[in-house]
Amino acid sequence: MSTLFDLTGKTIIITGASSGIGQTCAKVLSGHGAKLILHGTDVKRLNETKAMCADSEKHVIISMNFLDEPEKDEAAFDVILKEHAPVYGLIYAAGVSPTLPFKVLKKKQILEAFQINLFSAIDLIQRILKRGVRSENGMSIVLISSVLSETGERGKSLYGMTKSALVALVKSLALEYADNQIRFNAISPGVINTPLSNKSLYRQNEESMKVVSQQHPLGLGETEDVANAALYLISDASKWVTGTNMIVDGGYLSR
């Protein structure tokens, strides 16, 4: 194991850990010694993620939905935070990817997407900072955004808005918390092979799939590509990196 990416004994929270990018982040970080708090809403799939991790018995799962019973879930989450403090890092990989024409967007849909993709991230970061459970030696927070924070796509105005907001958030928080040695960065992936992207409309049509693939000069990405970037940003290898939006897109934005 390279000491540059060594996370031995460091507690990392990963949201969206039951599948896709979050699940792969769990596997990669556990392989570098991290102790994980795995968050999601599906207990069965969280346990599957835990079983995939190195030293699986040392990791903790939290299955809760902050939208349904926020006060109850927040109290339970606070207990776990204190039990496993100090917290060295957070990877916020939870999210939804709505595809809706702008003309049919409803306020309810907008609020629901922002709740999961942005507001819950803000709530979680504030909770960690207010509870005093962060590491005294600093902390690294990584928010998973999207290339649609940098460009546009038909039917993805709502999704792009939520992901652009995450990038804006890390840029300001990086300045606000630099004196506390808390680093904030975003990762903006292109199209990745995940359960979420597999539900996209272009996946249902071979010709559309071919077009999307050709838009990525290096081909479509895998969850490991994003997880390796997250490992870099969480670890001390990136100790002088904050306020960035790391593009991991196989050349999509270079066209």
Automatic annotation (TrEMBL):
CDD domains under this entry?
Answer: SDR_c
UniProt cross-references to InterPro entries, sorted A to Z: NAD(P)-bd_dom_sf, Sc_DH/Rdtase_CS, SDR_fam
Instruction: Give the top-rank taxon of the lineage listed in the UniProt record for this protein.
Output: Bacteria
Q: Which PROSITE patterns does the UniProt entry name for this protein?
A: ADH_SHORT (PS00061)
Q: Which GO terms describe its molecular function?
A: oxidoreductase activity, acting on the CH-OH group of donors, NAD or NADP as acceptor
Q: One short Pfam family name for this protein?
A: adh_short_C2
> According to its UniProt record, which protein family does this protein belong to?
Belongs to the short-chain dehydrogenases/reductases (SDR) family.
PANTHER family, per the entry: SHORT-CHAIN DEHYDROGENASES/REDUCTASES FAMILY MEMBER
Its recorded name reads Short-chain dehydrogenase
